[in-house]
Design goal:
Layout: E1 19-25, H1 47-63, E2 68-73, E3 114-118, H2 129-135, E4 138-146, H3 148-161, E5 165-174, H4 178-191, E6 196-197, H5 199-208, H6 214-220
Parallel strand pairs: 1-2, 1-4, 2-3, 4-5, 5-6
Helix pairs in contact: 3-4
Length: about 220
C-alpha cells in the first residue's frame, strides 16, 4: 500500500482476529429532531437511516453472542468537564439532562452490557473502555456511530495505539461533511490497511458465525 492513502473503498470481507466487540459510538439524540448540521451546508445526510440500521445491527450482534459496548458523550450543565471542546467549531453539546443527549431509542444497553460515558472525543480517553475490552479479551473492535472525523477517528487512533485492531463500518458512520468523512477514513486506513469494511461484510461475518450455546458463552466470558 502506498504511503498516501487514496482508495477508501471498504473491504467486502471482515477480517476479525481473536474476540470481536461492537463499539457503538455516540449514537445519541434520544429520538429528538437533530440540530446537528441544520445550518451547515454540506453536512452529511442519512442519520435517521443509519440509526435504524444500528438498532438492527446491535440486535444481530446480540443474537450471535458478540459483545456490544455503548459509548455516550455527556457533560455536566456547568460544563466544568468539557475542556477545550468549545474552542473549535462545536457549540455546547451533549449536556446531562438534555433529551438529545440520550441514546437513540432501541440502543439502550441491557443490564449485562456496558455503557461508557465519556467527556472527550475519544471513547478511551479518561474512561473505563480499555478495562472493559480487556475483560472481553477483545482484539478486534468494530466501530459504528459518529462523527467519522471526530469521535470515530479519535477512538480508532487510541484503539490502534493500545494495540487493538479496529474495523470502521463505513456505511454506518457519518461525518460533519463528506470531505471530512472521506479524509478521516483515509487517515484510519493509513493506520491499519484492513480498517475499512462495509455493512455487507459485517452481515456476512455474522451469518457465518454459529448460534451461541451456554458452553460457548462461558468460554468467551
Amino acid at each position: 500500500m502506498p504511503l498516501q492513502v487514496t482508495d477508501i473503498t471498504p473491504s467486502d470481507t471482515l477480517d476479525v482476529v481473536g474476540n470481536a466487540v461492537l463499539v457503538v459510538v455516540d449514537i445519541q439524540g434520544g429520538g429528538q429532531p437533530s440540530s446537528f448540521g441544520a445550518d451547515k451546508p454540506g453536512y452529511m445526510p442519512g442519520r435517521p437511516e443509519r440509526n435504524a440500521k444500528a438498532v438492527d445491527m446491535v440486535a444481530r450482534f446480540r443474537a450471535k453472542g458478540v459483545p456490544v459496548v455503548f459509548i455516550q458523550e455527556v457533560h455536566k450543565p456547568s460544563l466544568i468537564d468539557i475542556g477545550r471542546e468549545l474552542d473549535g467549531s462545536e457549540n455546547v453539546h451533549c449536556v446531562e439532562g438534555d433529551p438529545r443527549t440520550e441514546l437513540h431509542p432501541g440502543l439502550e444497553p441491557r443490564p449485562e452490557e456496558y455503557l461508557i460515558q465519556k467527556r472527550r472525543y475519544s471513547a478511551f480517553f479518561g474512561s473505563e473502555l480499555d478495562i472493559v475490552l480487556k475483560g472481553y479479551r477483545a482484539e478486534t473492535l468494530i466501530l459504528i456511530g459518529g462523527m467519522t472525523d471526530v469521535c470515530i477517528h479519535y477512538t480508532a487512533v487510541d484503539a490502534h495505539q493500545l494495540d487493538y485492531r479496529f474495523r470502521t463500518v463505513t456505511d454506518m458512520v457519518i461525518g460533519s461533511g463528506q470531505k471530512l468523512h472521506d479524509a478521516a477514513l483515509r487517515a484510519m486506513k493509513y493506520l491499519q490497511r484492513d480498517a475499512l469494511v462495509s455493512l455487507e461484510a459485517v452481515d456476512a461475518w455474522l451469518d457465518a458465525r454459529p448460534q451461541p450455546t451456554p458452553e460457548t458463552s462461558k468460554e468467551d466470558a
